[in-house]
Structure formats: structure tokens, C-alpha cells
Amino acid sequence: MNHRAPVFIITGGQGQCKTTFLHLVLGLIVGLNVRVRGVIAPGHVRDGRRSGFTLVDLATGGHEELCSIDPDPRCEAHGRFYFRPEGLAFGRRALAPPDPRETDLVVIDEVGRFELQGGVWAEQLDRLLAHPHPPMVWTVRRRLLDTVVERWNITNPVVVDVGAASVMATADAVMDAVWEWREAQTFSPVPAPPVPGDRIAAPALFADTAAGAPRSTPVILRRCYGPEE
């Protein structure tokens, strides 16, 4: 198996819609028989300020409240958020190391300062990266990007900046990585579902969004971090 399946990192500033961008990318690929595991964490706003997050298990569609700004003695405090024990347990189950024969893509929304401090999903990230893994997609705040890459020694990140990137091109690159991963599964090959042509066709729901990026827009910003750097 390929020990160096890429890690796509969707990055941007605070409030720059990284999760929305990720949701659009996933919307373009879920109809292509991609077996996705992991979590996406849509946020909530109260009085114009982020007030909490819900966690969605992408493999099952189940969801659980992850955290909020409302104090609760049962909860694990990180910064101004109180993380519910049920939400943390739910996310840790969703981020257990996957069976590579049954998983094409792992998604983690998001990796941030709490993980850098050893909390929330830090242990799950360590386990995921300790073994051969499918392609992964993370969301990371731009100011933490270099620190996250260094902390988890990611030698082959594909950095996707939401301020410049195309949703369509990102989904296309993720699918290329998925095809390569499937072909590498010599012990249990998985046939790739037929796709018209060799690029992704946007479902009607996302066509306007995908078409919104001008042709001159740089679609993916690639940065490789190796020992020599």
C-alpha cells in the first residue's frame, strides 16, 4: 500500500467558509461511490459570534453536539468552548483508524489549536498517520497551517486556499488521489465506478458555485514539506 497518500489541507482565515468549501467538495464526489469516513463540523452563530459546533459522522450520517460556549461542569473546556463528553466520544469513534479495504477518503474538520495542545482529535490524528492511510482532507486555519504540517510531519500536503481555489478543481484532485489509492490496494482491488470522460461533472446543485471561479484563478496551491526543507 501507498504510505504517502496525500493529505489535502483546506485553509483560510477565521470565518472564511472552510467548512462550506469542504461541504461543496464532498457534494461533488459523494455520487461517485467514494467511501468516506470522518467528521464535518458545521458551526452555530449567536449574536454575531460563533457559539458552538455540531459534529456529523460522514460514514453514518449521525450527528451530535460537539461543543458550545455555554458553561457546563460535565464538559471539557478548551478555550471559550465547552466540549460535551458525548460529542467527543462520538467524534473519536468516527475517527478510529479505518479499514483501508473499505475506505477511500478520511475527512477531519477541523484541525486546530486544541489538537496542537494535545486535545480533542490529537490522539486520533496520531493513530491515523501512524499507518498507511487513504487520502485525507483536513481543514486548518491559515495561521496554524505551517505548525500543523510540522507537528504531524505531513510530507506531501496539497494546500487548498479557499480564497483562491476552485471547488471543482479541488474535487477533481481528490478523486485522482482516490483512484490512485484504489489501484494501490493490491490485496483487495476496488473497481472504479465509470465516470463520463476523465474529469468530474458537477451536479446541478453545485454547478453555479463551481462555475463561479474564473479560469485564471489558481486552483490549488501545492506546497511540499520534505526533510530537505
Structure characterization notes:
- This protein is α/β, with parallel strands linked by helices.
- Mean pLDDT is 82; it is low at 189-229.
- The protein is built from seven helices and eleven strands.
- The radius of gyration is 17 Å and the shape is globular.
- The chain has one domain (7-186): Rossmann fold, CATH 3.40.50.
- This is Nucleotide kinase.
- InterPro entries: Nuc-triphosphatase_THEP1, P-loop_NTPase.
- Keywords: Kinase, Transferase.
- Pfam families: NTPase_1.
Low-confidence stretches: 189-229
Distance between the termini: 26 Å
Radius of gyration: 17 Å
> What helical percentage do the residues reach?
25-40%
Compute the number of strand runs.
11
The CATH architecture = 3-Layer(aba) Sandwich
The total domain count is 1
Approximately how much beta-strand content do the residues carry?
15-25%
Key traits:
single chain; 229 residues; alpha/beta; Rossmann fold; eleven-stranded mixed beta sheet; 29% helix; kinase activity; P-loop_NTPase; transferase
Question: Helices, strands, pairings?
Answer:
Layout lengths: L6 E6 L5 H12 L6 E5 L2 E4 L2 E9 L5 E6 L7 E3 L2 E3 L1 H10 L10 E7 L1 H4 L5 H8 L6 E6 L3 H7 L5 E5 L5 H18 L19 H8 L9 E2 L7
Task: Write a short abstract of this structure.
The protein is α/β, with parallel strands linked by helices. Helices cover 29% and strands 24% of the residues. The protein has 7 helices and 11 strands.
